[in-house]
Amino acid sequence: MPFEKLVKEYLLELKLGNYSKETMETYRQHIDKFIDFYKKEISNEMDIYAINKIHYKLFISQLLDNSLRATYINAILKSNKAFYSYLIREQVLKTSPMDSIKLLKETKQALTTFNDDEVKAMLNVWNFNTYLNARNKCIIAVLADTGIRISELINIKDSDLTDQYIRVLGKGDKWRVVPISNELNYLLTKYKRLRDNHFNKIRNRNGKVRELDSELFLGKTGRSIKTITNIEVMIAQTGLQANVRASVRCSPHQFRHYWTCKSLELGQDIFTISKLLGHTNLSTTQIYLQKLTNEQLISKAVKFSPLKHLK
């Protein structure tokens, strides 16, 4: 039975299971990596019954030769294992060729993220002189103040925004509410006024009246942002201009790390943080606890001492 035909069937199953586009694309890319390897190194014809564990061991060896991190290789393996689990459920296979394939041992790396001075510097790179400058400044401000995903940010509509919170659509099409500070509310109010004036002038100059898309952040033509690539490039360039340390990867997701570490540092509890991040598993959030120093832990313990609060 053709391997690639079964992959298409599996991706359709994910779509019907209400998986997000981003999740389905990740699974597809990870499985495609094995397909590319197999066709190049084994055979151009891929039959599901011809694939065995040796092929996957050779595949892992090639990934290691390419100096990929263990965490990334494990993500690829998990996606492929999930595909075989589906085939077993559908009774296409009785066993998986990956049953005996173990995940690689991952070395724990210290979590390094932005510091406060770097975030301030990145915000100061942009101003309110033009629409795109104001938009870029507010995109960075939203990411730093809320910790939301970039995929969630580009889908925020004006109607999702209030003076106190933003309603965001997260993974699995689950809605959640994230609070915003007075400072962020001020920036967004100023941004929306500039945005509306900017596009009204363009429409008047061209003599055409065209409805803008309903998203909060728009491209230069007034349409919604369809891909995160341009924002990723903008943030990387902003990091260079702000002299962010070379050891810190300047990306939209890095602001999520910054927000989480900062929230813990300021005393927010791990359960609330997990809820606001949209994590379905608390263990995903707990990795950030390693960022707390002994001094910070002692300070928190003293602050919440039971004896201190006895009356």
Order of helices and strands: HHHHHHHEEHHHHHH
CATH fold descriptor of the largest domain: hpI Integrase, Chain A
Count the DSSP helices: 13
Query: What number of domains?
Result: 2
- Cα(first) to Cα(last) distance is 73 Å
Q: Label the structural class.
A: mainly alpha
Our Rg estimate from Cα atoms comes to: 24 Å
Shape: globular
User: Roughly what fraction of the amino acids lie in strands?
Assistant: under 5%
The stretches of 5 or more residues where confidence is low (pLDDT under 50) are: none
Protein name: Tyrosine-type recombinase/integrase
GO cellular component, one term: cytoplasm
Keywords: Cell cycle, Cell division, Chromosome partition, Cytoplasm, DNA integration, DNA recombination, DNA-binding
Main location: cytoplasm
Write the layout of secondary structure elements.
Layout: H1 3-16, H2 21-41, H3 53-65, H4 70-89, H5 116-125, H6 131-146, H7 150-153, E1 165-169, E2 175-179, H8 182-206, H9 229-241, H10 252-265, H11 270-277, H12 282-286, H13 294-303
Antiparallel strand pairs: 1-2
Helix pairs in contact: 1-2, 2-4, 5-6, 5-9, 6-8, 6-10
Keywords: Cell cycle, Cell division, Chromosome partition, Cytoplasm, DNA integration, DNA recombination, DNA-binding
Protein name: Tyrosine-type recombinase/integrase
Organism: Lactococcus lactis subsp. cremoris
Write a compact overview of the structure shown.
With 311 residues, the protein is mainly alpha-helical. The chain contains 13 helices and 2 strands. The relative contact order is 0.09.
